[in-house]
């Protein structure tokens, strides 16, 4: 029987428009005792089923949301569940959509396992104006190595270290692994009894033992390569560092016997220690000595505040110190009151054997009167004179013509001064009583050309700063 023309036209009117555009909204439907309220947000499609998706590829679907109300709306989205990503994201400020307008965005599915993922994308554009887009997707699973890269760290040249590498099949089907081999663009530093081929059952794990044997104190890189039929290639990076850094501090205890406290000025005292890489093996950049998080910590024995003490490592401590290189670590003490202080400082390095370096700091803080009569000779340049032993020497005098004690602190040769200069006796602090003179001696080299250094010190006084004297050695 031929269908009525009215029915045929109705059926044709329900067909979706060409090009995948969303169908028009359904007409309002009323029944007895109810009033139809058209939703102010319309989402097309009404649900997203990604089906089974390759983990390594992911999948993308387009979504259109339409503001069917007669008002400007601010659209906000709740972050979708794990595995699904909204692109571009709708931030906390929301997205404005004019009345009758539409907005297109993408929903991406990136599975990391072989599980079924279910959830929804929640959209909101104000009171009684929301929509929910159901989401579903099935991960295919994959073949991967755990860990994703094998880092053997520091290994002494000529020795061997073995680590376990797991081959994991998260797929729901068995996988054949072929052409399993080690590859290196440099001297071969990696080995192991690896099968050239193996079968991985579905949802299974097997272990491989890989060895590293650096032949020199350089860094070696390689790869574990394989083909997973029929799913493509597998690559696991390998790394081993021949040799290792060894960290050492020039001192493990710092003491400041006299520190001036002046409530009206920023009184301070400083000390410097040297952090050095004393290793003899490890020439590559990866084997350089570095500070690592948390870098430096300061603790008080009683658990009290430690804001009086600040630690400033030199740039080399972060950039890296090659074999034999050193950098200064500045310890700056700003007391907040009189009395005894005691702190423990810990530096954290990448040295594998003894990574933590401990340093104690003790100080006695006093209310010292101003030092008002200190004169220093020479004041600008100390020219050393030749000595019979083939070196040179000179002295700096500190004369106190005032009526109160003067404290000259943190006497040291500044960074950049050649190691051939030194302060005799390693004096760090001078107490110059009224009417007395104190002297320090500086020893230096002899050279064809003038060799220069800098002597620094800090006379403890209100608002005082560090002072400097140039030091020159004769030819």
Question: What is the structure about, briefly put?
Answer:
This protein is mainly β. It has 2 helices and 36 strands.
Commentary on this structure:
The protein has helices at residues 5-13, 316-319, and strands spanning 41-44, 48-53, 59-67, 73-77, 84-87, 95-97, 102-109, 116-124, 130-139, 143-146, 150-155, 161-169, 175-183, 190-191, 198-200, 204-212, 219-229, 232-242, 247-249, 253-260, 269-277, 291-299, 309-313, 326-333, 339-349, 356-366, 374-377, 381-383, 385-386, 392-400, 406-413, 422-423, 429-432, 437-444, 451-459, 467-473. It is mainly β and 475 residues long. 26% of the residues are buried. Strands 2-9-8-4-6 form a 5-stranded mixed sheet, with no helix packed on it. The chain has a 5-stranded mixed sheet with strand order 11-18-17-13-15, with no helix packed on it. The longest helix has 9 residues, at 5-13.
N-end to C-end Cα span = 122 Å
Number of strands: 36
Please count the helical segments: 2
Ranges with pLDDT <50 over ≥5 residues? 1-19, 29-36
Average pLDDT metric? 89
Radius of gyration: 37 Å
Strands side by side in the biggest sheet: 2-9-8-4-6
* Helical content class: under 10%
Biggest sheet architecture: 5 strands, mixed
Shape: flat
Query: Structural class per helix/strand content?
Result: mainly beta
Percentage beta strand? over 45%
Topology:
Blueprint (H helix, E strand, L loop, with lengths): L4 H9 L27 E4 L3 E6 L5 E9 L5 E5 L6 E4 L7 E3 L4 E8 L6 E9 L5 E10 L3 E4 L3 E6 L5 E9 L5 E9 L6 E2 L6 E3 L3 E9 L6 E11 L2 E11 L4 E3 L3 E8 L8 E9 L13 E9 L9 E5 L2 H4 L6 E8 L5 E11 L6 E11 L7 E4 L3 E3 L1 E2 L5 E9 L5 E8 L8 E2 L5 E4 L4 E8 L6 E9 L7 E7 L2
Parallel strand pairs: 2-9, 11-18, 20-26, 28-36
Antiparallel strand pairs: 1-3, 3-7, 4-6, 4-8, 5-7, 8-9, 10-12, 12-16, 13-15, 13-17, 14-16, 17-18, 19-21, 21-24, 22-25, 23-24, 25-26, 27-30, 29-30, 30-34, 31-33, 31-35, 32-34, 35-36
């Amino acid at each position: 029987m031929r269908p009525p023309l009215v029915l045929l036209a109705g059926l044709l009117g329900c067909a979706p428009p060409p090009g995948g555009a969303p169908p028009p909204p359904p007409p309002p439907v009323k029944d007895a005792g109810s009033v139809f309220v058209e939703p102010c947000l319309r989402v097309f499609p009404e649900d997203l089923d990604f089906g089974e998706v390759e983990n390594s590829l992911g999948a993308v679907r387009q979504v259109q949301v339409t503001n069917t109300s007669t008002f400007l709306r601010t659209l906000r989205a709740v972050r979708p569940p794990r595995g699904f990503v909204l692109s571009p994201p709708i931030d906390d400020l929301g997205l404005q959509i004019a009345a009758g307008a539409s907005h297109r965005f993408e929903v991406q599915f990136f599975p990391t396992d072989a599980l079924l993922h279910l959830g929804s994308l929640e959209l909101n554009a104000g009171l009684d104006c929301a929509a929910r887009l159901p989401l579903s997707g099935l991960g295919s699973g994959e073949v991967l190595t755990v860990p994703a890269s094998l880092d053997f760290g520091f290994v002494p040249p000529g020795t061997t270290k073995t680590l376990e590498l797991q081959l994991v099949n998260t797929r729901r089907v068995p996988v054949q692994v072929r052409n399993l081999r080690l590859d290196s663009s440099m001297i071969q530093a990696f080995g192991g009894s690896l099968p050239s081929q193996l079968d991985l059952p579905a949802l299974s794990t097997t272990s491989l033992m890989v060895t590293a044997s650096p032949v020199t104190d350089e860094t070696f890189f390689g790869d574990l390569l394989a083909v997973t039929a029929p799913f493509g290639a597998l690559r696991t990076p390998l790394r081993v560092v021949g040799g290792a850094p060894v960290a050492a501090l020039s001192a493990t205890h710092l003491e400041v016997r006299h520190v001036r406290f002046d409530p009206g000025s920023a009184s301070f005292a400083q000390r410097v220690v040297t952090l050095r890489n004393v290793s003899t093996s490890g020439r590559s950049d990866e084997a350089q000595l570095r500070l690592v998080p948390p870098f430096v910590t300061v603790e008080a024995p009683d658990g009290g505040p430690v804001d009086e003490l600040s630690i400033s490592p030199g740039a080399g401590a972060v950039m890296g110190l090659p074999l034999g290189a050193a950098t200064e670590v500045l310890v700056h003490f700003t007391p907040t009151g009189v009395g005894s202080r005691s702190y423990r400082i810990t530096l954290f390095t990448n040295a594998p054997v003894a990574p933590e370096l401990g340093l104690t700091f003790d100080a006695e803080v006093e209310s010292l009167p101003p030092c008002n009569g200190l004169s220093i000779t020479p004041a600008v340049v100390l020219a050393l004179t030749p000595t019979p032993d083939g070196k040179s020497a000179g002295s700096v005098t500190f004369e106190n013509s005032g009526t109160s004690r003067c404290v000259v602190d943190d006497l040291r040769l500044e960074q950049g001064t050649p190691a051939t200069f030194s302060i005799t006796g390693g004096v760090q602090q001078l107490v110059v009583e009224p009417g007395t003179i104190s002297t320090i001696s500086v020893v230096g080299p002899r050279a064809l050309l003038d060799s220069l250094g800098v002597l620094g010190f800090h006379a403890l006084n209100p608002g005082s700063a560090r002072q400097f004297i140039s030091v020159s050695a004769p030819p």
